[in-house]
Amino acid sequence: MQLPDNFHIAVIMDGNGRWGEIHKKNRVAGHEAGMNRVGELFDESTKLGIRHLTLFAFSTENWKRSSFEVNGLMRIFREYIKRESAKILGENVRVKFIGDKAAFSKDLIAMMISLEDQTKENTGLQLNVAMNYGGHDEILRATRKLLAQNIAPEDLTKELFENALDTAGTPPVDLLVRTSGEQRISNFLLWQAAYAELYFTDTLWPDFDANELKKSIAYYNERTRRFGGN
Ligand code: IPE
Ligand code: IPE
Ligand code: MG
Asked: pTM, whole model, 2 decimals?
């Protein structure tokens, strides 16, 4: 499968709740099933030579959900980091959490920072996990950071702005995948996905397997990217 160098794929992992309701009558069970798909996705991404993978795990708006669901998700995030850290380290994956960590409990923040620290020298797949992430919030936080540095308006460049975003150092998104049939961005990577190719599938996230990933890349390979040129 042909892929450009430094390929960046971003995934809105949607449809866990519906999957849980259909199969187990419980949305949190759907999140568990969804979590169990993530390892397969990064294994396959590594095999395909994808350099950058960004996964939308929890949005700044997802706090609006019931406390049962939010608490269930927090338990699943903890379990995931505990369970998968060894695999992540062994596979040379570099993990970065994007989004505002401050909203999470102290122990979860410590786990996220520790995984980032332990993997920061890894040279394989660069895995960004978006947690309490919103495109608006990220742009606002970046703007605040720049204002605090007293940057003169005329000195602000696209590069400086991009370096203040959570994704600093990551190339723009080439392919944005959304599962579950919804065709919207839902506040994900608003800056970074400016010229991304968009791929939507009706498959619910817990059913999204390696073959589905390959289908999305085949779709990407059929596109002609123009970036406003002709
Ligand atoms: C995506 O699945 C995961 C999170 C938002 C945390 P959903 O929970 O949004 O699943 P649906 O869209 O309700 O089926
Ligand atoms: C986007 O899905 C967030 C994640 C997948 C983490 P949502 O389910 O929250 O988005 P909407 O509400 O359908 O737009
Ligand atoms: Mg959803």
From this structure: 0.98
Q: Which helix (H) or strand (E) holds 132?
A: strand 126-133
Answer left, alpha or beta for residue 185, where phi above 0 means left and psi between -120 and 50 means alpha: alpha
Give the model's confidence band at 81: pLDDT under 50 very low, under 70 low, under 90 confident, else very high. Answer: very high
Burial 194-211 (b: 16+ CB within 10 A, else e): eebbebbbebbbbbbeee
Q: Separation of 16 CA from ligand 1 center, angstroms?
A: 5
Model confidence pLDDT, tens digit, residues 211-228: 999 999 999 999 999 999
Please name which ligand lies nearest the alpha carbon of 18: 1
- The ligand 1 atom at the shortest distance from the C-alpha of residue 73 is 6
Closest atom of ligand 1 to CA, residue 21: 14
Site to substitute for ligand 2 among 14, 187, 208, most atoms within 8 A of C-beta = 14
Say which ligand is closest to the CA of 184.
2
pLDDT in tens, 141-151: 999 999 999 99
By three-state DSSP, how is residue 8 classified? strand
